[in-house]
Design brief:
The chain has about 280 residues and is mostly helical. The chain has 3 domains: about 10-100, MazG-like (Helix Hairpins); about 155-220, Helix Hairpins, CATH 1.10.287; about 225-270. About 65% of the residues lie in helices and about 0% in strands. It is built from 11 helices and no strands. The longest helix is centred in the C-terminal third of the chain and has 25 residues, at about 225-245. The radius of gyration is 25 Å and the shape is extended. The two termini are about 40 Å apart.
């Protein structure tokens, strides 16, 4: 039975048609590397949202939208004689082969290790860090933190900074030290609040959040994912309160704090859904 599904080559052809100066799409033609960045971020978060909601039926669609961003950047690169999609794929495969010598021992895609040559996870991580150091040096990046993007979400970037430092022995031995640091940061924040120093409040609150991320890492919890889940939980409970008020003909502005707290307790007792 013939496979009538479109292939990557069809997607590349479609992209060239969209950017055709004579017959292409006006919106696509006016885009640049810079202008499509916001759309790339949006597509990434839509993929994440679909996975977190376990909506796997629509995941293929969202992954396709994200792939289209890569195709778009590749077309722009080709038009400016910088690179094309083939270069993107080739560079990626070459990098991944080089970063996995425990899988591709001869540095080629076809090479395989023997059945008795499987390394342990600790050895794999050490090799990975050594390879990353070499790549940073080739790019002229000398600090072990140099290649951590500034554009990452703040929680994710904090966690990545801490993890990188921890890989070089800059870390507490266990979570007890982080709990002590949390107490210290809370005390410093309270002092700043008492003094009415807004700049100090902002700084100390940042330190507190940074330490909370460190605690997440020590507890093997992804801070970004954990906070997103907490936000979804709050959203669900708040919407429950709204629904109950509508059903009883009340408005939130007219309710006492005791009434709202009562509804909040009820909301917490509702079965969780898609958290």
């Amino acid at each position: 039975m013939a496979d009538n599904r479109y292939q990557v080559e069809d997607l590349l052809y479609l992209m060239r048609r969209l950017r055709d100066p004579e017959s292409g799409c006006p919106w696509d033609l006016k885009q640049s590397f810079e202008t499509i960045v916001p759309f790339t971020l949006e597509e990434i978060y839509e993929v994440i949202d679909t996975i977190e909601r376990k909506d796997f039926f629509h995941l293929k669609e969202e992954l396709g939208d994200l792939l289209f961003q890569v195709i778009f950047y590749s077309q722009l690169g080709a038009e400016e004689s910088l690179f094309d999609f083939g270069d993107v794929v080739s560079t990626l495969v070459e990098k991944l082969v080089n970063r996995h010598p425990h899988v591709f021992p001869a540095g080629t895609l076809e090479s395989r290790r023997g059945a008795s040559g499987a390394p342990d996870e600790k050895t794999v991580k050490e090799r990975w860090e050594a390879l990353k150091r070499g790549e940073r040096q080739q790019k002229g990046q000398h600090s072990i933190l140099d290649d951590i993007p500034l554009g990452l979400p703040a929680l994710s970037r904090a966690q990545k900074l801490q993890k990188r430092a921890a890989n070089h022995s800059f870390d507490w031995p266990d979570s007890s030290g982080v709990f002590d640091k949390l107490d210290e940061e809370i005390g410093e924040l309270k002092t700043a609040i008492q003094q009415g120093n807004q700049c100090a409040i902002e700084e100390e609150l940042g330190d507190l959040l940074f330490t909370a991320v460190n605690l997440s890492r020590h507890l093997k919890v992804d801070a970004e994912t954990s906070l997103r889940a907490a936000s979804r939980k709050f959203e669900t409970r708040f919407q429950y309160i709204e629904q109950q008020l509508i059903a009883s003909g009340e408005t939130m502005g007219d309710c006492t704090l005791d009434r709202l707290d009562q509804l909040w307790v009820q909301a917490k007792q509702q079965p969780s859904k898609n958290r």
